[in-house]
């Protein structure tokens, strides 16, 4: 286990101790930061993945110098949500269930169930059903690699070379 994974586990345990609500089968990757000032204002549902370097904020200090107070709000993340790397979730946002948030997105408003959003600010791109259908077709037309092509599957140099060659002209998928 890498040092960044150990640090992430320690941080998550501290956030939970401080009131973060976390469902089952939640993956919080390295570099994720959940507002350390208000972790009790964050609720994360079941089957959620938060990719590396995401930021979840429950406060907005931009007004503090001008009006003397910071704005605060809850963040609620539904079930079966994927939050792409380096995304930012701002205060007072509810993310519905069955949602994909594209990498680098800034979520400023609540997101309904069953959609894919991306951008800054994040906007709806398509429904989750359309996203799934598009990728199912693409998987039939492109190579799909098994676990033996990953570190956890003890990938060999031959498989690495094979993967590099097969991905030289298109993308692929991994189990």
Describe this structure in words.
With about 180 residues, the protein is an alpha/beta fold. It is about 25% helix and about 25% strand. It contains four helices and 18 strands. It has helices spanning about 5-15, 65, 130-140, 155-165, and strands at about 20, 25-30, 35, 40-45, 50, 55, 60, 70, 75, 80-85, 90, 95, 100, 105, 115-120, 120-125, 145, 175. A six-stranded mixed beta sheet has the order 2-5-10-13-15-16. It has a four-stranded parallel beta sheet with strand order 1-4-9-12, with no helix packed on it. The longest helix has 15 residues, at about 5-15. The radius of gyration is 18 Å and the shape is globular. The two termini are about 20 Å apart. The mean pLDDT is about 95.
Structural descriptors:
alpha/beta; six-stranded mixed beta sheet; four-stranded parallel beta sheet; globular; 18 strands; single chain; 175 residues
Short description:
With 175 residues, the chain is of the alpha/beta class. It has helices at 3-17, 64-67, 128-141, 157-166; strands at residues 21-22, 27-28, 33-34, 42-44, 49-50, 55-56, 59-60, 71-72, 75-77, 81-83, 88-89, 93-95, 99-101, 106-107, 115-119, 122-127, 144-145, 173-174.
